[in-house]
Amino acid sequence: MDDSRFFESDTVTADDVAAEAGVSRWTVARAFKKDASISKKTRQKVLAAAERLGYAPDLLAASLASDRSNLVAIVTDDFSNPHKLVMLERLTRILRREGWGTLLVNMTGDADASSALLAASQRRVDAAVVIGTRFDDRALHTALGARRVKKLIIFARLSQNPNTLNIACDDQAAMRAIADHLLARGRRRPLFVAGPDTQSAKLDRKPGFLAYWRERTGTTPPAIHVSQYDFLCAIDGILPALEGRAPAEMPDVLVCENDIIAIGAMDGLRHRLGLRVPEDIAVTGFDDIPLAASPAYGLTTYRQPITNMAEALVEILEGKRSGDAILPGLFVARSST
Predict the structure, then answer these.
(1) What is the CATH class of 71-169+306-329?
(2) Comparing C-alpha atoms, which of 325, 256, 265, 252 is closest to residue 297?
(3) Could you read off the pLDDT of 281-313 as tens digits, one per residue?
(4) pTM: predicted TM-score of the whole model, two decimal places
(5) What fold does the segment set 4-57 form as a domain?
(6) Which residues of 172-196 are buried (b: 16+ CB within 10 A; e: fewer)?
């Protein structure tokens, strides 16, 4: 067949695909709808014809004819944290597999949260998924009150706003696993190293660890905050808390709120203070980023169930889940403890 006629105009249409596949235009439309009634054989024939002709359906036009766009906005910030890239890769891959498109919106800070959500709503997204660090529950309340988004989902954190849905790792169970491991290794003087102390949706890691350690030992460990989830900020935030201490006053483990803080801490301990990990001070992280498994770090950490969290997001988008999803992860012991 001579396909040159399809390159004489700018756009290949559904009618062109229908003629190529020998089906009706409405069969072509059904072939591109995930839950449409169509046989597997016919769908494959239409999709093969569409691929040969370079056809893709106009999703914007289709969304205008229904109340769904099958588009999800992912609103995020804190790109210096490598775990954000892990989450973005997993989220977008699973959403795409299930027939959902994604729109990435870079939220530059808590003052920008409201405008970022407005930008998302202007694209007629079905939901906004917030995985940022610096956003305020007040901005979420404003966005929901103004009906800027149909559905607002907080991913990997917990919001107190009753009109949001939360998808997160079970931080409290995770911190109990980390604390039990450290106590079994004879660690008794932890220092908790948290990320930015913001008014945004929270992690339960610091309160979960401090409460459980107090329950197990009768003592409440000290805690410090670093300014960002960033390698250099971790070094700059942790070293002043340790420099000048007598050996007996040093913590015997740094319990870090995420892996990039822990990796910065390990390099600071080794190369700025001349200490050994874990012999002098042990270190734990959270997330299990790829670098955590490197022989240079061997970081004991807790792996978030990102795949299960992404699948829970799809269930919420498709109306199969109506409540929060707080899911267990996996403790990973390595040489840093």
Answers:
(1) alpha beta
(2) 265
(3) 999 999 999 999 999 999 999 999 999 999 999
(4) 0.80
(5) 434 Repressor (Amino-terminal Domain) (1.10.260)
(6) bbbbbbbbebbeeeebeebbbbbbb
